[in-house]
Amino acid sequence: MSERLGVLKTYKLFIGGKFPRTESGRSMKVADGVGGGQAHVCRASRKDLRGAVEAAHAAQPGWAAAGSFLRSQILYRVAEMLEARSGEFERSLAPGGSASLSPTEEVALSVDRLVAFAGWCDKFQQVLGTHNPVSGPYYNFTVPEATGVVGVISPQSPALLGMVSLLAPALCSGNAAVVLASSANPVPGAIFGEVCVSGDVPPGVVNILTGDPVEVVEHFATHREINALHAAGLTDEQSTTLRSGAAENLKRVCIRETNEWSGDVCESPEWIEPFVEFKTIWHPSSA
Amino acid sequence: MPAAIPASPTVDRVMADARAGAFATRSIKKDAKVAGLLLAVSMIDLTTLEGKDSPEKVRSLCRKALRPFDADEAVLGFRVPPVAAVCVYPSMVGAARELLDGTGVRVASVATGFPSGQYPIEIRLEDVRDAVRDGADEIDMVINRGAFLAGRHDEVADEIRRVAEACGVAHLKVILETGELETYDNIRRASDIAIACIRDGDFIKTSTGKVSPAATMPVTLVMLEAIRDELLRSGRRIGMKPAGGIRTSKQALHYLVMVKETLGDGWLTPTMFRFGASSLLNDLLRQLVKEKTGRYAAWHDFAEA
User: Fold this and answer.
1) Residue among B140, B85, B75 nearest B281 (CA)
2) Do A223 and B296 touch (CB under 8 A)?
3) Per-residue pLDDT tens over the stretch A119-177
4) How close B297 gets to chain A, by Cα (Å)?
5) Within a domain: residue B56?
6) Residue A177 host element (H or E)
7) Which of A8, A202, B111, B262 has a CA between 20 and 30 Å from the CA of residue B231?
8) Could you say which of A53, A57, A224 has the minimum Cβ distance to residue B295?
9) Residues B46, B240, B262: CA angle, nearest 5 degrees
10) Residue A89 structural domain
11) B295 touches chain A (CB under 8 A)
């Protein structure tokens, strides 16, 4: 009897809760720790980005309205699903690897990070919001609300932890996200979409593209329906592209310079703050 | 003696679906795309048909119809043409008339007890006369689907003839409400009946927009073929209006391809082909901005009607 052939995995994009191929029909050859050899992942085009933004724009109001507790439960469930598939993610991280973290450590930290931001879902409002003193018989509150659609550009490494650390704070406050996975190792990003589906993340709230940053970063910056950007590990040239494109349409840009992804600093509410809009309300009442 | 209604051929559902599907695989880029988008804008019947419509909502829609994109010259470098018509309920015709008189944008009104048509014929005819009296240039009528499905085709034909007469100089569009007609054969039969009872330059139209499914490519193809067969038979030229469910530029371009390949360039004009739509307009504008600037626009860059 001949030796059984393994099922080779072909990695797709994750857009609107589905796993489509790129409309461009292009792929990239990458080392694949899960399949134990090489694999092809989609090389997304700007049209895929457009489709992902449409999906995110449609899903975002429902996600924001879902309420803090439900968002918290869903993020926690994503963490559960990630933990359950930790073996697969560890294998996916083996090629390339991170300088300072073992695959096991990186997956564990990614789970913990999701749990941390699941916890923040119903608490960041108290930390970022204020009760403002006013000289009159009124209450005056400032409350944080979701910005809208956030573009997440993941660092090359750590492929999983970097992506999760940039994504989770944006989701926490009710934003939808369009993520560009690490191009050095896109496989963890590609399979993270499956974790989102089994974690009951509503379709369109998280969208994940794999591809060449050189091609799509510019369109992340100039797309007027993306309201904010969370990025790390960019080249100077890409930072400039991102900032100048975003300046034109006044979107918020937050580029992280950190190399220390394991620290508590990445779980601070300061990571949530760039992706909220502050609304101040006067409440007429005899205080 | 009214013209006889021709016998209708049967429609092969599988082939109609396959043929319609083939139009959606064409790729239209660059200059051809821009031309197609602008043509589609000029073919829109910008529509509001809601119970909560108010005169101010209609006036706002009319302003959008006349100048679809107020930053057009700054962003695109040229004026976007006005749409073909504004389509409203009869009670709103006066409000639309105020702003559209003399502009070239026509006022269309639904009538005949839209959307159900479940009223006595005299009331439906009075509805038409009222709308025409108030200044409607075009009347969108609904056929009596109950009578059609019960097999009383002569009654349906007779009613369409009476409505056409009541329209006077106003153009007539006959809504088949294909979502309620069950089969392609019925849609073809209803198209043939309507075509036989209306005048040159009048339209047949798929849907009210109140029933799902509304316009689809295969249904529109069946109707376009009925129009083509009438053209070949008698030389009469009947217009076509798909309505409801057409929301994206891509869909609109696919419809234009289908019209061109079924009826030819003669139908690629607002006098022979219309889109019944509202949200389509802003998607067309978004794509125009993308083609001209290379950047994707946001929904909030364009005024809602």
Assistant:
1) B85
2) yes
3) 999 999 999 999 999 988 889 999 999 999 999 999 999 999 999 999 999 999 999 99
4) 5
5) yes
6) strand A176-180
7) B111
8) A224
9) 130
10) 47-284
11) yes
Asked whether residue B296 is assigned to any structural domain, the reply reads: no
The distance between the two most distant Cα atoms of chain B, rounded to a whole number of Å, is 60
Distances (CA, A) of A95 to A100, A157, A186, A266: 14, 11, 11, 25
Q: Can you give the CATH number for the domain in which A111 is found?
A: 3.40.605.10
A interface test, pick of B75, B295, B301 with most A CB neighbours within 10 Å: B295
Pairing of strands B106-110, B138-142: parallel
CA pair distance B13, B222, nearest whole angstrom? 10
Cβ contact B40:B253 at 8 Å: yes
A159 and A184 in contact (C-beta within 8 Å)?
Answer: yes
CB of B78 within 8 Å of a chain A CB? The answer is no
- Identify whether B295 is part of a domain: no
Residue A36, domain member (yes or no): no
Q: Which of B23, B29, B89, B25 is nearest to B55 (CA)?
A: B89
Residues of B in contact with A50 (CB under 8 A): 296
Q: Is the pLDDT of residue B1 over 90?
A: no
Return the residue matching tokens 């994504």.
Answer: A167
Percent of chain A past pLDDT 90, that is, above it, reads 82
What range defines the domain where residue B114 resides? 13-290
Q: CA A74, CA A199: separation in Å to the nearest integer?
A: 6
Task: Specify the pLDDT at position B175.
Answer: 97
Q: Is the pLDDT of residue A287 over 60?
A: no
Q: Is the separation of the CB atoms in A38 and A30 below 8 Å?
A: yes
Could you tell me if B279 lies within 8 Å of chain A, comparing CB atoms?
no
CA distance A127 to A146: 15
**What is the C-alpha R_g of chain B?**
19
- Would A177 be classed as within a structural domain? yes
Give the whole-angstrom CA distance, residue A189 versus residue A72.
21
Q: What is the rounded CA–CA span in Å between residue B223 and residue B229?
A: 10
Residue A96 lies in a domain: yes
Residue B125 CA to residue B167 CA, distance in Å, equals 9
pLDDT bin (cut points 50, 70, 90) of residue B272 is very high
The shortest C-alpha distance from B213 to chain A (Å) reads 21
B250 assigned to active site: no
Residue B265 appears among annotated catalytic residues = no
Whether A50 and B297 lie within 8 Å, measured CB to CB: no
Q: Which CATH number do you get for residue B197? A: 3.20.20.70
Domain tally, chain A: 1
- Taking an 8 Å cut-off on Cβ atoms, the answer to whether B296 and A57 are in contact is no
Which H helix or E strand runs over B255?
A: helix B249-263
Split into its structural domains, chain B has a count of 1
In a domain, B299, yes or no: no
Helix axes A46-65, A213-222, angle to 10 degrees: 50
